[in-house]
Amino acid sequence: MIKITNLSFGYGKHKLFDSLNLSLKRGHIYGLLGMNGAGKSTLLKNIAGLAMPWSGTCVVNGGVAVKRNPSFLQELFFIPEDIYLPPVTAKQFAESTGHFYPKFEHKQFEQLLADFDIPINRSLTKLSLGQQKKAYIAFGIAANTSLLIMDEPTNGLDIPSKAQFRKLVASVLTDDRCVIISTHQVRDLDNLIDTVLVLHKNYIILNQSLDEISEKLNFGVIPANSADYIYAEQHLSGLNAITENTDNSFTKVDMELLFNAIINNNLNLITLLNKTGNEQHI
Ligand SMILES: Nc1ncnc2c1ncn2[C@@H]1O[C@H](COP(=O)(O)OP(=O)(O)OP(=O)(O)O)[C@@H](O)[C@H]1O
Question: 81: which residues sit within 8 A by CB, 6+ positions away?
């Protein structure tokens, strides 16, 4: 669905990506994680064809992204971090804009608005910022494009809305659809994404499903005096640790701990994770 090959891009003299390679498939919800300023938004803009690569290519659905052909645009919905909506109601917005997306479903949009508790007949500009974001997320889901990109979608959402967001996005994933969600608030993607992408120091240093990660690593609290871990942080009752999964047991991936370990340049962890099939290495 998405094939990025040797992508180099930056602003001015500041290079953000250096021959970055990445392949993403349909039927997955990818979580794009990275520190502030790592370049998550910029990478998403490259995928959406909103930024011109210095070199390399970004191909989406067989077409070069930056050409932004009509067939490409019909199958892409991009929710940027900051959204600006017109002074019309959600219903009017769907009537005037929905037809750009051949698979847009008005009924689904109305149901999603109801799920998010958004009034359908109030001007979008009179909604709170969180409500506007939810309305736009609902529109993006109802557009039913094969590629849905969301840049920090949970910013501005209250806690119940974050849970609702996770539930709604998870419920609309199909084998035909690829969803990419960026965040620096790792916990917001818990129980939603199936594959983790970590963007760090110019590269995608991890592109792996949670299942694959669970096969290699265990996550959990171990005694404070234990030295048998790959990465650990202090915990009230010991150490919150990542250990090697040597006995095929299953533990839920603690994405925050994993992310912290990776950005702290934990080479043992990265080597272990990269034993098979990763895109690039530090
Ligand atoms: N239009 C621009 N012109 C110049 N520099 C930019 C522009 N947009 C982003 N940058 C810079 O590029 C770097 C990456 O920005 P980007 O917004 O892609 O990061 P991010 O990972 O999404 O960060 P955050 O988590 O804070 O949203 C930052 O150093 C930023 O200042």
Answer: 41, 151, 152, 155
Distance 16 CA to ligand 1 centre (A): 9
Give 203 Cα–ligand 1 centroid separation in angstroms: 15
Question: Ligand 1 centroid vs 39 CA: distance in angstroms?
Answer: 6
Cα–Cα dist 202/221, whole Å: 32
Query: How many residues appear in the chain?
Result: 282
Closest CA to 11 of 35, 58, 45: 45
All domains in the chain, ordered by first residue: 2-200 (3.40.50.300), 209-282 (no CATH)
Q: How far apart are CA 274 and CA 212, in angstroms?
A: 11
The answer, yes or no, to whether ipTM is higher than 0.90 is yes
Q: Give CA separation, 175 vs 3, 27, 150, 172, 239, in Å.
A: 18, 4, 18, 10, 39
- What tens digit of pLDDT does each residue of 221-269 get? 999 999 999 999 999 889 999 999 999 999 999 999 999 999 887 778 8
Quote the CA–CA distance of 9 and 202 in Å, as a whole number. Answer: 9
**What is the pLDDT, as a whole number, of residue 276?**
62
For ligand 1, which residues put their CB under 6 angstroms from it? 11, 16, 34, 36-42, 184
Instruction: Give the number of C-alpha atoms closer than 13 A to the C-alpha of residue 93, restricted to the C-beta side.
Output: 25
Which atom number of ligand 1 is nearest to the Cα of residue 10?
12
What is the DSSP code (8-state) at residue 66? G
